[in-house]
């Protein structure tokens, strides 16, 4: 059965049925009227609060991968990629070949969207029983702490998954910027996927086959308003991505993303024009845990709002995802995850609040 979106009268179908989330206020709007307040629902418990430090000089750097070397099949770079995925689950990609102009246009389009009057943005509001559109996801209870961000999530590829009633088409240049950006991300994603395949002992097209053809794509655009008490709130709660992998375009000069590494929160200092890539849960499962989808979160800046653009690459809904044969060896690497239909996995993820990696238990085999 097709769940019906409630924000418009048109009959486009798009992609549907991944989950639902309770409606929440726009924190950007709350801050517009009173930038000093920190509403109770956003104040995290002591143990979850971030430590806000201006001094990032001593923190470790996540690995940097030169995409132009990967694309040429450079063995050393492939090995670097392997270690980055194994030891960090996160890396920054430089020399990816996407023109700066395309990245800038995309950032400008997203900034322009969030600058629209609230009444205008609300036209693209997500329905409670959908995850696409403007609003927030992963809100499952009136009591849960809320994240200090607004977002708009759109399915972008394959193009028949586009649900234009959620696209701000009246915003000049938005559609063109998003389509062009989406195409560029797909090209990078295909090369990365081919490399992951080889590193998992498959042919270059191995994961493509096991993920049900071309990678699917959805783009989540996040807006993090300023907060007078960034030490009390989180921009996005700790979570891992339920994707194959994710490509993140960050603001060049506001650091916000932090990843869990050796039990500590490590900031990802932006390299201008680079993309941050992280391994998602589907790759963790397919690699039988060799690569881990790492917990990450975003913190808030007191003085500058921040925008980020997350391109989620994921398998086909109907595809069964499980550890690939070459990654299982009964003696040393027993199978750690069960095979699971991808749509069942995402439904489990979207039925919960963001809570680190708790949702990944769903795919784990019990080990005794
Ligand atoms: C996400 C995410 C981090 C960021 O959208 O899944 O982790 O820095 N975003 O915005
Ligand atoms: Ni994420």
UniProtKB/TrEMBL annotation:
Pfam families: 2OG-FeII_Oxy (PF03171), DIOX_N (PF14226). The keyword Cell membrane does not apply. The keyword Manganese does not apply. Keywords: Iron, Metal-binding, Oxidoreductase. One of its GO terms (molecular function) is oxidoreductase activity. Residues 215-315 form the Fe2OG dioxygenase domain. Belongs to the iron/ascorbate-dependent oxidoreductase family. This is Fe2OG dioxygenase domain-containing protein. It comes from Gossypium darwinii.
